[in-house]
Specification:
By secondary structure, the protein is an all-alpha fold. Helices cover about 80% and strands about 0% of the residues. It starts with a helix and ends with a helix.
């Protein structure tokens, strides 16, 4: 792969890579490190991308694998609480209500099992089609649809519980 092709096909995926890594790692700093490391590695080994039919799927699978490697080294549960509190401080756009809604959804997604959170992020945030997600997470399309259904149902339940808890706190 030549430099112009790399700039055309891989570099534009940087934001997707970062968002996906952040959704898996729940830490912006680690997600940024993963993104930069992978871009550097993909650049060094760009000749391996020559025969690749779907570069975006290949890159996102590489992100997933790198994130899982990071999660194996550290326990993600220890960082979750600190990261979720930090998300609110990092926002600089949108009104307070809009941010509160985003923060609520992020916290709710963090409560989902890893696989559900991953598939939900790829489908509803990144917009990947079901068949590509199936390739990225190594399962068939029917299983992706089942995981999505369970993730959305679980997200609804968690959001409802969180909103009920917030209402109860306001009354007190």
């Amino acid at each position: 792969m030549k430099e112009i092709e790399f700039d055309r096909y891989v570099v534009p995926l940087r934001d997707r890579m970062f968002r996906y890594a952040q959704s898996l790692l729940l830490c912006a700093d680690e997600a940024e490190d993963v993104t930069h490391d992978l871009l550097e590695r993909l650049w060094r080994e760009r000749s391996r991308l020559d025969g690749c039919r779907n570069i975006a799927s290949f890159v996102m699978t590489a992100v997933r694998n790198r994130c899982y490697d990071n999660l194996r080294r550290r326990r993600a549960g220890e960082r979750r609480d600190g990261v979720l509190a930090g998300w609110a401080e990092r926002s600089s756009s949108g009104g307070a209500e809009q941010w509160e809604a985003r923060d609520l959804v992020r916290r709710a997604m963090a409560e989902l099992p890893q696989r559900q959170r991953e598939v939900l992020h790829l489908k509803d945030i990144e917009g990947y089609p079901t068949h590509e997600i199936a390739g990225m997470v190594a399962c068939d399309e029917a299983q992706v649809r089942v995981i999505l259904s369970r993730a959305r149902s679980g997200l609804r339940e968690v959001l409802k519980k969180m909103m009920d808890d917030e209402r109860a706190e306001r009354k007190d």
